[in-house]
Amino acid sequence: MAIIPKWAFILVGIVLLVLAPIGQGNYVALILCSWLMYTIAAMGLNLTLGYAGQISLAQGSFMAIGAYITALLTLSGVHWLVAMPLAVLGCFIVGLLVGFPALRVKGHFLAFVTLAFNTLVVLVLRNEDWLTGGSYGKSNMPRPDFWLFNTGTKSTFLSIPLSSNQKMYYLCLAVFIVFALLMYGLIRSPWGRAFKGLRENPIRAESLGLDTRRLTLLAFAIGSAAGGLAGALVSPVVQYIEPNSFALQHSLRILLMVVVGGSGFFFGPMLGAAVVILLPEFLRFTEGYYLIIYSGLVIVLMVYSPSGLMGVGSRIVAAVRPKRVARTDMKEGAQL
Amino acid sequence: MSDTVLSVRNISKSFGGIRAVNDVSFEVGKGEVLGLIGPNGSGKSTLFNCVLGQLRPDQGEVHVNGKPVAGMRACDLNRLGVGRTFQQLSVFPEMTVLDNIILAGQEHKGTMWSRLFGSADAGLSGEADRLIEFFRLRHLRQEKAGSLSYGQQKLLDAAMAFMAGPDLVLLDEPAGGVNLTMLGNLKERLQTYNRDHGTTFVVIEHNMEFVMSLCTRVIVLAEGSIIAEGSPEEVRSNQQVIDAYLGG
Predict the structure, then answer these.
(1) In sequence order, which residues have a C-beta less than 8 Å from that of residue B43 and are 6 or more positions away?
(2) Domain for residue A235, yes or no?
(3) Mean pLDDT over the full length of chain A
(4) How many independent structural domains does chain A possess?
(5) Distance from CA of A181 to the nearest CA of B (A)
(6) Are residues B138 and B132 in contact, defined by beta-carbon separation less than 8 angstroms?
(7) Which of A132, A336, B33, B155 has its CA 20 to 30 A from that of B23?
(8) Inside any domain, residue A168
(9) Domains of chain B
């Protein structure tokens, strides 16, 4: 059925992403950066929630931790290339710790535990101003200089003039592509299968030798590390962070991206982040009505396709694809 | 008994004032197919859960291949060579039949890191296909488990218990809700597997015909205690068993 191979779509997608900011202004480049950063955070949450079935309302707080670690380190002179992995590692460790309650509580109760953690992080960031700058936050974080490619300055690359924001977009895109490849490898590996097993039937999974405690902790830790990676990009892109930028509403926004795109689908968070970040921008021509239209579209989508945009896509493919008999075993007789 | 795979010694378990299992002891040898039967409330499931570590017995010990396993986590017990099926259907409905079978074996292959960086099928496709073929599910290999009929899911459930090559498999009501033709198919597959691999089975079942034709030895529980033990023929003609089932 696959007339055009999947990799061809991906290649075209990458080419479009490379071309996207060319000829556009600074604002468009920043919006595209925002989409890529939130996509990374949403892909992390998709692993925790969509693949491993562990609900988390704390992804925004991991972006915060990643962003603050990166900001503090880069402001003290550490290169972003060193600060970023430290931010990811820090979030991995904190995510591991946040995963422990998930060993005891499930569903709504786990959602409240993670919600409380998000609130705690915001309060710490606001109150520990000796470290975090309190409500004023941190500003003027340097944009990384990769010697031949300094994202902090305007210059030309292959005779194409690139602003600093456009260069930051390409940094975000490079990080996103590497991260997406790693995530794809993880989902396709036996680890990915084990995460799905944990989501679908944890008791059975445990009886087959899968250490569901370890899997739960890893699902939280890896998902949180992705939040930290997104945060490590927020710091140089926005160059100003403060606690409210990572409050509960941002975790809910990331959750919305996962759900709207299609929880448990690899490409779901990319679509979901596009809807949540880009659609309001497209709807700006409606002036004061854009939020109402946006909210209405999301409600209609959730009512008619709880599996999100990827679910809509699956339905379209199923409608177009040639039908086959419901049970393929009847040629063997009805003995089964 | 030589080559004892499962040894249950003086197991007792109470819930409040009710003693569900009362000082039960038995052993199961290598390659044996033991049936555990009894009327409702006789303590079969409680005993099963004590053996599988889901309940901690008030007293007594359980050994698998000579190792004490009481209170052990299910995943550790599985790594020790114990497979099981569940009374209710217990497959992974959103995964294909092939992925269900591979998942059942992947934790026994390689290390945690080789499972992350190695091949997607953990090198188990060939082995999984052989098991799928053995349980006559080849034509359903790429179907989602949730789309299979009840009987097919029961077969898949059983197949998953065998993927890791266990020494001992505990089957919890494998015949429950399965039609007669399918039941004959399942029994024949279990007998063949037992003959070819020498795997030990312990079967809890209400279907007497199924137990009597599959098992080499039968233990009958009533009110938490063993009231009879022997070959299917001996048990069938035991007056205490007839009384327990029919009310003597």
Answers:
(1) B13, B20, B21, B22, B24, B221, B223, B224, B225
(2) yes
(3) 91
(4) 1
(5) 13
(6) yes
(7) B33
(8) yes
(9) 4-246 (3.40.50.300)
User: Which residue, among A182, A193, A212, would best test binding to B if mutated, counting the most B CBs under 10 Å from its CB?
Assistant: A193
Task: Report the predicted TM-score, pTM, of the whole model to 2 decimal places.
Answer: 0.91
Among A residues 128-187, those touching chain B with beta carbons less than 8 Å apart: 186
Give B160's contacts in chain A (Cβ within 8 Å).
Answer: 208
What pLDDT sits at residue A333? Answer: 46
Contact A189 B143 (CB under 8 A): no
Q: Report A:209-228 residues touching B (Cβ under 8 A).
A: 209-212
A289-296 CB contacts, 8 Å cutoff, 24+ apart: none
Contacts of A9 (CB under 8 A, 6+ apart): none
Contact A331 B139 (CB under 8 A): yes
CB spacing of B116 vs A204 below 8 angstroms? no
Predicted local confidence at residue A280, as pLDDT = 86
Size of interface A-B (CB pairs under 8 A): 102
* Res A332 pLDDT > 60: no
A1 in reach of chain B (CB within 8 A): no
User: Are A23 and A163 within 8 A, CB to CB?
Assistant: no
Assess whether pLDDT exceeds 50 at residue A122: yes
* Helix, strand or coil, per DSSP, at residue A327: coil
Place of tokens 């039937």: A201
Going by C-alpha positions, the residue among A69, A42, A223 that lies closest to residue A141 is A69
List pLDDT tens digits, range A149-198.
888 888 877 778 889 999 999 999 999 999 999 999 999 999 999 999 99
Q: What confidence tier does B180 reach under pLDDT thresholds 50, 70, 90?
A: confident
Classify residue A291: in a domain, yes or no: no
Q: Please answer yes or no on whether B75 and A331 come within 8 Å at the CB atom.
A: no
Mean pLDDT of B136-148: 94
Query: Would you call A200 an interface residue with chain B, using a CB distance cutoff of 8 Å?
Result: yes
Question: pLDDT for B81-118, tens place per residue?
Answer: 999 999 888 999 999 999 999 999 999 998 989 999 98
Cβ of B136 within 8 Å of Cβ of A336? The answer is yes
Domain that holds residue A174: 24-248
Q: Where do we find the tokens 């060319």?
A: A22
The interface residues of chain A toward chain B in range 62-81, judged by CB-CB distance below 8 A, are: none
Instruction: Determine, yes or no, domain membership for A307.
Output: no
Residue range B138-156: mean pLDDT, rounded: 92
